[in-house]
Structures are given as structure tokens and as C-alpha cells.
Amino acid sequence: MIRNYIKIAWPNLVKHKLFSLINIFGLASGMTICMLALTNIKGAYDSDTFHPDADRSYRIITNLTRKNGEHFLAATSPLPLGSYLKNNHKEIDKYTRVYFSYDEITANNKKLYAKEAYVDAGFYKIFGFKLLSGAPATAAQTAVLTIETAKRFFGNKNPIGQVITIAKSGDYVVTGILAKPKYPSHLKFDLLASMPLSGNEKRFTDWADEAAAFTYVQLKANVPPSRLKNILGNVTRETNRLIPTLANKSLVFEAQALTKISPAMRPIYNIADEPTFPNLMAFAFIGLVILLLAFFNYVNLTLARSLDRAREVGIRKVAGARKHHLVLQFLIESVLIALLAFCLAQVQLKLISTLPVVQNLTGNVLQDEQLWAYFMLFTLLTGLLAGWIPAQVLSSFQPVRVLKGKFNAKLFGGVGLRKTLTVVQFAASLIALITLLVFYKQSVFMATADYGFNRERILNIPLQGDSYERTATALSATAGVEQVSATSGMFGFSGGDNKFIKREKADDSLAVEYFSVTPSFIQTMGMTFVAGENLPASSPGKATPFVVLNEEACRQLYFKNPFESVGQLVWINDSTKYKVAGVVKDFHYASFTRSIKPLMLTYNPDEFKILSLKVVKGTEQTIIPKLDAAWKKLNPHQPFQKHWFDDQLYQQHLHKNDLMFIGLLTGMALSIACLGLLGMVIYTTKNRSKEVGIRRVMGASAWQIILVISKEFILLLFLSVFIGLPIGFLTGIQFLQQYVYRIPVSFEILAGSAVTLLCLGILTIGWQTYHTAVANPVKSLRTE
Questions:
Q1: Cα–Cα–Cα angle for 456, 461, 463, nearest 5°?
Q2: Would you tell me how many other CB atoms lie within 10 Å of the CB of residue 369?
Q3: C-alpha span between 18 and 671 (Å, rounded)
Q4: Backbone angles phi, psi at 169, to 5 degrees
Q5: DSSP class of residue 682?
Q6: What letter would DSSP give residue 366?
């Protein structure tokens, strides 16, 4: 019987090609985004499912409360915690600590940056990362590489036994290569290095540093999780006793099951790389909205053709068909369209798979066979849900009334389901368009705004582990270089490192952002001093080092004014004494998502990572080859990497990939709505062709006919704008809440979005109605 239904459905789809194509394209667009969301969600829930005894493994997270009442949850914990738990509690079977670093690696005459994870020997027993060859890196100064990292450095050569050099960590012997895991993990790294044994370092004994490392433990068999909770309660009390009073904070340790890490269900700072549940749901919601618009198209166009299908229903009912037979027939038609849409969705997925944002969402999950089973189930559900309302409506027609010509297709009184769905489609498209424009305007604002420092004619060159003095000396001799400086981090991005500062003899410490810079860097950036002076060019060996603060740091350190702070002594991390040399005017050293916080600038050459060259105006194009030649003499085996600071800021904040993806989603929503409207207009003009012929014969002009046919649809468009504008305005405001410094949702954005939507809708309507209005009336009247 199903076979016969398919035989009936297929000719019907082929006969009405345009309506079928509109429905297939709309469903395919919605299914593409939903399948991306399904892939993202499945990848999140599949994370870390390949580890042995995962039900007994936990990450220790830290609940931190500062003296000022500030409270947050961190995924990290102090470095001494893991070994303390293992050595003092017999219930703990294994432990490992993990902390990440991103450094330059030298191997096989290559210098490349890589993300290394320093781990204890227990890592290889708690986690299920398998070795493709070799042995785990359990001995001191050993490492294992991922297969991708091994190919980057060694190509087809066997890296086992080779020595790699990690900047600031020394030489490591490669003992093995990791196989690519079948499922994703929240731990992302390029290589695993053995945990340093230099326990004399402060961080290995510092119980106050909750951000030091990720700590994982595995309980012995048959030990209940409640026991670990009790253990952590006791350790919490002991830890807070060990934390110095000057730290002004208290820690509470909690156990997070390894199986519950991904996706993150609540806000946690310092997470490794796990996706968050709110982001997963937000993306799924966007996909469902686009799919819902496609549903509306299907319902709209199917009900619009109800007059044609009504006679079919009447004849089949007279011939003995029951209602459930007709419901099944219409559902099979919709499932068939959904299957065709699924095929088109695969093509769309392939086309957009090159976008970085899509690659981040999918990873390797698309290769999972189980996922394709979910896709097929999702396709069947899509077809059934899309066809359910039309199937119920069309199968309920009374054969006697239909065959007598007394059929009335209006639903829900005078409003009509089809009109309601059209309004909802365009209102949703308008909201999406407003959101896209708000995102674009905010991105342009952040990319081009005045950050309070100079960004022109500055060329940033990564030092790649080289000495600042050596590199600066070599490049400064190049004609066209006006000034040479260096910094530990770039302004306008994610901010600096965190330090704690306090006035001499004060109890409370203040969290500040920290950059190590040369005195010339402050000049290059054009910072304005409101008090004091720049860092000294050099200081005697045993002299007190100097620091430059911003105005916000002075305020929060309770100086009466910036002038009072000059010459005062401050302590950094309760260990080093500095003298305040000067105070600079507040500027945006981080992105606009963060307010201006206390800032300190000091001179520490060991921390320099970027060389910043200010070039003479007019030499921007000619100086690059000269610098390239000077670099090759200095570092013949390393490529010359350079970036204009202005371009870096622009590219960082304009988010081209995100804009492209959001634009794609908005374009899908608009195209679905416009195609649905086109289908409605085509069907309406087809049914009113005889009316048009009569009006033309009676002397009506083409524009009068266009107005008569289009009036109803244009009113629906204006109603969509009336509904969508206030909702889009509120959506834009809500979106901008994540930025501390933001643009307003202006009249320009709202009016531009509304005009764009109206123009697209009117062009869609006008294109078809014009062809109908200028058609030869004799042809339409002959068919009477």
C-alpha cells in the first residue's frame, strides 16, 4: 500500500515543480542548520566517553569568594591539591594535574608554536588517550606528540627518541605518538609533557593560586561519591588555614564528575575547552526557527492549493477512501519532500563546511555513523510534522460539498492561517536582519573606535623565542624604522596577565592587569601621562624597579589623586616592591566586552613576546622587503611573521567568519520567506487570471491590476514590519548587553532593516503580478 501512495505522490510533486522546489529548498535550509546543531550537541555529549572508569573519575573545581564579596566558580585548582589528596586519603586511587601553555617548540630545525599540556603519570591511566606507538611520557623531561603535531615537525620521520625544545621549559625526549581519539575531549592539546619535578617553585606549594592547574582524581572501586565530597570538605578547611591572610579570599573545593564536564551546565571560569549548554541551546533554537519558517511555507503552499486537492479528496472519499488513508497519503508526500530536502541539505553542508565557524562546530563528528541515523530520524520527523496540519485539514473536506463546488478554504474566521504564517515568517526574518545589522555595526565600532592609544604605522613582529635586544638591534638599523619597542601582549585584545598589587603597609590587595613593556613602547602607543613620567630607560642592578599605573588603579588604591601616587611604593603579589614612576590616562587595553580595570606597566625583558616597530610615514609598503631581508640574516630557518597593528585590531573585532555565518542564517530566513511569498503570489495570480483578463478588457491599466492583486500581500508585509520592529529592537538591545561599550540600536538600523524587507517583499510580489497584468487577456478568457 505504501508503494502505491508513493506512486501517487511522486507525479503530484513533479506536476507542481515550483511549489515542490520551494518546499524542498526551504526544508533543506532549515534542516542544514538543525543538522549542524545536532552535530554540535552530539559532539558535546560524546565528549570524554572513551575514558576507562569514567564513572569513578572527577575534576576538582574551586568555588572562590573574595573578601570584597566577589564570587565565581573556576574549573581549576591549586597545584598541590592532587598529590595532597593522593597521599593523605586512601580512597583516592589515581590523580593527575594538567596545566596548559602555548609556547614556541623547536624540533627538526623547525620553530613552531604549539599548545602543550603538562601532566602527571596518572594522566595515562585516568584518561583513555591511546598511543599509536611508543610509550607514555612518565619520566622527567619526556613528551608524547599527537599524530598531527608529529607530522608538523617531523613529516614522515619517526619522532620517537628525538629531542624537542619547549621555550622556557627546556629539552624533552619524545617517547610516543598519540592516536586520534574516536570521540572528542574537553582537553585539547598538541603534545603531552611530563609534569616538571621542580617542586621548589612557588606554584607547586601555593595553595592560594586557584588558577594553577586542572586537577583530576579517580576513586578506588566501590568508594561512593559522597565520600569524596566529605574528603573535599576537610581539605577545604585545611586549605583555607594554609592560605595567607593577605590573599583576601577563601576556597571551597567541589567534585565534578568526568561524565558531566561537557557540556558545561553552569558558568565556570578557566574551563579547558568544553562547550557550554546555553550556547548549544541557542544554536539549536536558531535552527528550529529557520526550520519552522520552512514548515510555514509547506503549510502555506499546501493549503493554498487546497482548492485543487479538494476535488481529489472528494473523489477519493466517494470511491471509498477513509480519512486515515488520506492522512497517510499526504504525510507520505511530505516525507518524500523531506527526503529530497535531506539530499539538498547534504549539498549545502558540503558548501559551508569550509567556513571556520562550521569546522569548529562539527569537528570530526560528521563521520559518526550513529549521527547519520539521527539525521534520518530527524528527516522523517521533519516530514511528518510539516505535513501533519495540511493532512488533517485536507482529509477533513466533505465530499458532497466539495463536488458541489461549495468548498470554502478560509480557516480561523476571516484572518486565515496562511496570512498568519506569512506575517510570522517575515516578522522573524526582520528580527534576524536587525540582529545581523546590530552585530555588524557593533563589530565595526570595535574595529575602528579610538582605544586611547596609537594604532597607525605600527608593525607587530612575534619574537618567536628570540632575544628582544638581539632582534631589536638587527631590525632598528633598517631605513624607515622610526622607533623600536616590545611588549608581553597586545593592547585591544584579551587584556594582560593578572597580578595583585597593594600599597605599602596596606592589608587589601587589588587585582590588576599586567603588561611588561619597554619605555619606548609607552611612547610608541602615544599614551598620555597625567602625572609623573615614563619608566626609566635603565635602572641600577639593585635599585627598586619602577611601575606605571593607570588612573583606575590609582582610584582603587585610594590615592587622593594621580600626583600623590608618584614615588610611592607598591607590592606586587606580596613579593616584589615597585616604585610608581607615573600614571597614564585610562585607555582601552582590552576589548570592549570589558570595562577599564586597574592596569600596571613595568619592564621585564624575559616576558617580551612582540616587537613593535613604528615606521616613518610613507614607508609602509617599501619597508617590508627590507625587514624581511634583515630577519633572514638573523633567523634563516624561521619565516618572517609581521602584522600591521591597525589591521590586527580590525580583523580581531570585525569577526568576519561570524558575520558570514550569521549573514548566511539571515539570508536563509529571508529566502525562505520570499520564496514562500512568491509561491503564494503565483498561486493567487493563477486563480485570478480570468479576473485579470476581464479587468483588462474593461480598460484597467497594468498598474491598476498590479495594485489590486498586490494590495493584500503588501498589507501583510507592513503588518510584519509593525510586529517585527519592536521585537527586533529588544533583541538588538539584549544582544548588546554583552558589551560594556556599545552602539545604540539606532533608527538607521531599524529603518534600513524594514526598508530592505519591504523592498524584497514588494519585488517578489511585483515580479509575478507584473507578468500577470501584462499577459494577453484573450488567453485567460479562452480557458473559461
A1: 150
A2: 6
A3: 15
A4: -120, -15
A5: H
A6: G
Residue 170: partners with Cβ closer than 8 Å, 6 or more residues away? 141
DSSP letter string, 217-281: EEEPTT--HHHHHHHHHHHHHHHHHHS-GGG-EEEEEEEEEGGGSSSB-S--BT--S--BHHHHH
Tell how strand 510-516 and strand 599-602 pair up. Answer: parallel
What gap in Å lies between CA 458 and CA 490, rounded to an integer? 12
Q: In the Cβ-directed half-sphere of 160, how many Cα atoms lie within 13 Å?
A: 12
Phi-psi region for residue 456, left (φ > 0), alpha (ψ -120 to 50) or beta?
beta
Q: Is 110 helix (H, G, I), strand (E, B) or coil?
A: strand
75 in helix, strand or coil? coil
Measured between alpha carbons, how far is 401 from 313 in angstroms, rounded to an integer?
11
Instruction: Collapse the DSSP code of 206 into the 3-class scheme (helix H, G, I; strand E, B; otherwise coil) and give the result.
Output: coil
d(CA 707, CA 769): 9
**How is residue 90 written as a grid cell?**
586512601
Phi-psi region of 173 (alpha: psi -120 to 50; beta: other; left: phi over 0): beta
Check residue 409 and give its pLDDT.
Answer: 47
- For residue 544, count other CB atoms closer than 10 A to its CB: 12
Q: Which residues pair with 143 in a beta bridge?
A: 174, 193
CA distances, 414 to each of 147, 295, 397, 681 (Å)? 66, 22, 19, 19
* DSSP state letters, 492-510: TBS--EEEEEEETT-S--E
Place of cell 570524554: 48
Helix (H, G, I), strand (E, B) or coil at 607: helix
> Omega of the bond prior to 744 within 30 degrees of 0, cis?
no
Cβ count near 103 (within 10 Å): 15
Length of the chain: 784
CA–CA gap between residue 570 and residue 503 (Å, rounded): 5
| 101 vs 118: CA distance, rounded Å | 8
pLDDT in tens, 715-742: 988 999 999 999 999 999 988 888 889 9
Residue 762 predicted with pLDDT over 70: yes
- Residue 548 pLDDT: 94
The per-residue pLDDT for range 471-495, each reduced to its tens digit, is 888 888 888 899 999 998 889 888 8
AA identity, residue 645: F
Confirm if 778 and 694 have CB atoms less than 8 A apart. Answer: no
State the Cα–Cα distance between residues 4 and 329, nearest whole angstrom.
Answer: 9
Cell (9 digits) for 719:
503588518
C-alpha separations of 571 from 505, 507, 543, 568 in Å: 9, 11, 15, 10
Among all chains, which residue has been given the C-alpha cell 533583541?
Answer: 731
Beta-carbon-side half-sphere exposure of residue 531 (alpha carbons within 13 Å): 20
Strands 497-503 and 191-194: unpaired
Residue range 51-94, pLDDT digits in tens: 998 899 999 999 888 766 677 888 888 889 998 899 999 999 99
d(CA 239, CA 250): 9
SS3 742: coil
- Whether the full predicted model's pTM is greater than 0.85, yes or no, is no
Nearest to 449 by CA among 343, 351, 335, 590: 590
* Amino acid letter, 515: F
Q: What is the DSSP string of 627-679?
A: HHHHHHHH-TTS----EEHHHHHHHHHH-HHHHHHHHHHHHHHHHHHHHHHHH
In the predicted model, is pLDDT for residue 552 greater than 80? yes
Dihedral sign from CA coordinates of 657, 658, 663, 669 = positive
Is residue 742 within 8 Å of 444, Cβ to Cβ? no
Give the C-alpha distances (Å, rounded to integers) separating 96 from 58, 99, 138: 11, 10, 12
Look at residue 274 and tell me whether its pLDDT is greater than 60: yes
Residues 6+ apart with CB under 8 A from 244: 208, 574
Give residues with Cβ within 8 angstroms of 711, minimum separation 6. Answer: none
**Which among 55, 51, 53 has a CA at the least distance from the CA of 225?**
55
